[in-house]
Amino acid sequence: ERISEETHIRAWVADDSLTCVARGAGKVLEQFEVLRQTLSSDDRTQPGGSAS
What we know:
The chain is an all-alpha fold and 52 residues long. The chain has a domain at 14-39. The chain has helices at residues 2-7, 17-30, 32-40, 42-45. The termini are far apart. The model has no long low-confidence stretch (mean pLDDT 84).
């Protein structure tokens, strides 16, 4: 509940947390190249970088 309030993003405790983690990891791997490019961007990884 607090996570939802602080982030303004829906959040809940999964009934089967291990399956939830496995599915999330699978989704990351499916989009790994996009995620890698996003995370390796100089602007996004440096403190004070712009997100434009």
